Amino acid sequence: MKTQFYERYKNYSKDELIKIILTPKDFQPEAVITARQIIAEKNWTSELNNRIEELNRKNLEDAELFEQEIKEKAEYYKNVLEFKHDNNSFQVRIADIPKFEAKLGAEGIQFFREDKNIGVQLDSYPTQTYFFKSEDVEEVDEITKKLGLITAPYADIKPFFKFEIKVLLIAVVVTVLLIILFK
Q1: Where are the domains of the chain?
Q2: Which residues are CB-contacts of 164 (< 8 A; sequence separation ≥ 6)?
Q3: What is the pTM of this model?
Q4: Helices 29-41 and 45-84: angle between axes, nearest 10 degrees
Q5: What is the tens place of the pLDDT at every residue in 44-58?
Q6: pLDDT digits (tens, 9 = 90+) for 15-66
Q7: How many CB atoms lie within 10 A of CB 129?
Q8: Helix (H, G, I), strand (E, B) or coil at 141
Q9: Distance CA 80, CA 112 (A)
Q10: Residue 86 CB neighbour total at 10 angstroms
Q11: Which sign does the torsion angle of CA 170, 171, 172, 178 carry?
């Protein structure tokens, strides 16, 4: 059956025709039928079937990855609700994370490690926030003391503030001197 698309599509390459078939939403139904017809006439059906199988396999893999991502996010937010409720948290320097988590695991203490992109990330003290259940707080406190863990000082949230004060003081002194000299 020759359609209005036949004359246009008969000189298309194999890849162009397969693209029409693999993306039917982008074309009129008659165009897709014509592309299939031409592929059959040119004996490219096995390659079309291989590409369809490949696309189906990729779509299945993407769907599985998407489902896994949803499960991970659901678990993350479940932990947010469970562990952050009591607000028992501790900031651990990035360098101390392996020994801290190893000790928590050895002691069987459940914890929630906040996503590193959400936690307090100070320029000079990169840290990770950990949350614990109320019943484990005292044991976690003992672990942090035994391991000698320290966290970033909360007062030093802007490490370069001292520099800014020095510059401001110098500017004030220079201004006062200039006023005195030009009076």
Answers
A1: 6-72, 86-147
A2: none
A3: 0.50
A4: 130
A5: 999 999 999 999 999
A6: 999 999 999 999 999 999 999 999 999 999 999 999 999 999 999 999 999 9
A7: 19
A8: helix
A9: 7
A10: 13
A11: positive
CA atoms lying within 13 Å on the CB side of residue 3: 13
Alpha carbon distance 137, 90 (integer Å):
10
Determine if residue 43 is left, alpha or beta; phi over 0 gives left, psi from -120 to 50 gives alpha, anything else beta: left
Specify whether the CB–CB gap between 129 and 93 falls below 8 A: no
- C-alpha 159/C-alpha 165 separation (Å) is 12
Bridge partners (DSSP) of residue 128 are: 92
Is residue 42 within 8 A of residue 14, CB to CB? The reply is: yes
Question: Given 2.40.128, 3.40.1350, 3.30.70, 1.25.40, which CATH number is that of 86-147?
Answer: 3.30.70
Contact 13, 48 (CB under 8 A): no
Partner residues linked to 89 by β-bridges: 131
CB 88 within 8 A of CB 135: no
